[in-house]
Structure formats: C-alpha cells, structure tokens
Amino acid sequence: QPLEQVDDNKEFEDLLSSLPREKGFMSSSSYQYQGFWYPPSILQGVINFQKHFKPRENDIFIVTTPKAGTTWMRGIIYALMNREAHPPHTLHHPLLNNAPRDLVPFLEGIGSEYDSVCNSPDRNARIFATHIPLVSLPNSITASLSNCRVVYMCRDIKDNFVSFFHFANKSNLRSSPISLEDAFNSYCKGFSTAGPVWDQILGYWIESQKNPHKVLFMRYEEMKDEPKLQMRRLANFLETPFSQEEENSGLVDQIISLCSFESMTKVDVNKTENFLDGVTNSSFFRKGVVGDWKNCLTSDMASKLDQITEEKFRGSGLSL
Ligand code: A3P
After folding, report:
1. CB distance 130 to ligand 1 below 6 Å
2. Is 0.95 exceeded by the ipTM?
3. Helix (H, G, I), strand (E, B) or coil at 85
4. Residue 141: which of 57, 239, 206, 213 has the closest Cα?
5. Angle of CA points 126, 127, 131, to nearest 5°
6. Atom of ligand 1 nearest to the CA of 64
7. How far, CA to CA in Å, does 284 sit from each of 56, 115, 146, 239, 261?
8. Coil vs helix vs strand at 215
9. Separation of CA 183 from chain center
10. Residue 116: is it exposed, middle or buried by C-beta count within 10 angstroms (0-12/13-18/19+)?
11. 127, 216 Cβ separation under 8 angstroms
C-alpha cells in the first residue's frame, strides 16, 4: 500500500469515530460530515475528493440528489459534449456499449483516479457525477474565477424518495431490506446519502441564483416535459450552443432519443445484474416516470414530505 493511502485510511478511521452516527438508509450506519449524512464508503470518496482532487479549467460537475436522474444527465452531457466525435445517431455510439456510469464516473466512487478521466474532447473539461453538497465543494471549483461548471438536477421530493427506497433494496449495500416506514423516517430526518435532501437542493438553488453562469439548476420534470428547450439551455450554459445546422439536422432530437429511458433500457450493458461497487447497472433504471409516488406512498406520507418541503424552501423562491 502506498504510504499516502495508509495515512489516508488511518485519518479516515479517526474522522469516522469523531462524527455523529445514525442508523443508515443505504448502509447500516450513516455519518454526518459538514452538515450532511453519508454511508462510510461514500464519505471516504468525499474526503478523497477534498484532499486530492485538482480541478481543471473547464471541468463539468453533474450534481444531483441521489435518484434525481444522474444516469440520464450523464448520458445527455456525454452525448452533448462528444457530439462531433460521436454523432448521436451512429450505431456505434459509446452509450450503446457502455453504461453511463462507466463513461461519466462518480466522483465519490473512483478513489483518487481523477487524472485518468478523459471523457470530452477538451482534456480540461472532464465530466464527473457527484452528490456532494455545495458546502463541501472545494473553493477552487466554486471560486468565481474558475471556469468549472455545475449542472444541478433535482426532482419532486416524493418521487425522489420512492426511487431511493426501491434502489436501497435493490443494492447490495444493505445487509437486509429496509421497510418503507423505516426508509421514510430516515429520509425525513435527512439520513439518506448527502441528505437532508432539502438542504442539498437549497444550497445549489441559492448558488444558481447568485452565479447563474456557474450553476445551472435543472429539474427532472422539466427535462421530461420540454426536453428540447432544456437541451438548448444546457448547451448554452456549457458554452457549446447548437448551431443552426445542428438544429436543422435534428441533432437535438437525436440526443434526446439516444438518452431516453426507452433507448437506454434497451442497451445490453444497462441490463447487467452483476454487482459492481454494491450496485448493478440495471438498478439505475426502474420506471423513469413523473408521479410514481402515488403508487407507493400513503397520503399521510405524501403530506408530510410536502410539508417539510414547504417549510424548508419557504422564502427561497424555490418550490418543488
Ligand atoms: P425511478 O426509480 O423513479 O424510475 P439516478 O440516475 O440519479 O440514480 O436516478 C435514477 C432514476 O432515474 C430512476 O427513477 C430511473 O428509472 C430514472 N432514469 C434512469 N434513466 C433515465 C432516463 N434515461 N430518462 C428518465 N429517467 C431515467
């Protein structure tokens, strides 16, 4: 083991023993760090990132609450940024042979292997996915002088919870299934990964209002409702607007279609049931619809989530 890693492990264990701990949502324990809760494996990724990550000039961070559509955004931004080398209608597009999480790595899940990531034509514009809250991003990323950008995506909290609940029970990270009631209570108290979900959303919402050129705030439902408009918004934000020629050729629709739930779930590699890092590729695809919470939550649960959302976002100008 390299010396640095041995030091890191010892430091991490010391840190864990000093942090508030609760019964976890995704794993047996959740630890609170800088105001947010994590399973130990993800927290280790956050610490690695804070210690070792060196941003490059144009890096792109897809930040989401877990289960808000990270996989979808990975596909969309990968296809958008690589559209010249890999036109979205081609039969050999990388998204037809690779799971989105293999093309756009999860920051908290890749150890310290950041430098080997090369997933856009500009080697200084790597694309990463993460759930790290704004307060835990290093200054080098958030400083207004840096050109790094954050594409933030969230989703109706009730759908988000339901998706997370199903995912928790599909993953290999828990030793036994969690009941809907336990998951719900844990989620409301904020113990889910990078929770409280409301605080994570609010942090990026406020930043997107202050620094709209650095943080683009997107919603799953808007992406479903008006994908073309949202694609243009995204392309403009990432300073790679669609040319008239691209618009005329139908490129925007091609990216939307390549990354649609229907297309992605037909790709063999996305059907894989083999566990990698405790989760299967197939577990990132379930229904892909808006409003599925109605099939899972009691009306009391729905009202409670609505009430917390109302209270947390009051005065912020944000409603979900
Ligand atoms: P559901 O469980 O509601 O179906 P994440 O990628 O952040 O883990 O989010 C997973 C959620 O996004 C799941 O929601 C999943 O089905 C949905 N999803 C995955 N790919 C999608 C796509 N291409 N379009 C729309 N939704 C997608």
Report:
1. no
2. yes
3. coil
4. 57
5. 135
6. 7
7. 29, 26, 32, 29, 11
8. strand
9. 20
10. exposed
11. no
Residue with CA at minimum distance from ligand 1 atom 10? 67
* Residues in Cβ contact with 157 at an 8 Å cutoff, skipping those fewer than 6 apart: 197, 198, 305, 306, 308, 309, 320
Determine whether the shortest distance from the Cβ of 235 to ligand 1 is under 6 A: no
pTM value surpassing 0.90: yes
> 175 φ, ψ to 5°?
-80, -25
* The one-letter amino acid at 111: G
Cβ pair 117, 111 in contact under 8 A = no
64: β partners: 153
- Closest ligand 1 atom to residue 287 Cα is 4
Lowest-pLDDT range, 84-93, 111-120, 245-254?
111-120
The token duo for 78 is 């990968």
pLDDT at 124 over 70: yes
**Coarse DSSP helix, strand, coil percentages of the chain, rounded to the nearest 5 percent:** 50, 10, 40
Q: From atom 12 of ligand 1, which residue's Cα is the shortest distance away? A: 69
The catalytic position among 86, 93, 131, 166 is 131
Backbone angles phi, psi at 192, to 5 degrees: -75, 165
169's CB contacts (< 8 A; 6+ apart) are: 177, 178
Q: What spacing in Å lies between the alpha carbon of 244 and ligand 1's midpoint?
A: 31
Q: Minimal CA–CA distance to 130: which of 236, 28, 59, 185?
A: 59
Please write the tens of the pLDDT for every residue from 254-281: 999 999 999 999 999 999 988 888 889 9
Specify the residue with its C-alpha closest to ligand 1, atom 26. Answer: 288
Q: Is 129 helix (H, G, I), strand (E, B) or coil?
A: strand
Name every residue whose Cβ is closer than 8 Å to that of residue 12 and which is 6 or more positions away in sequence.
Answer: 44, 47
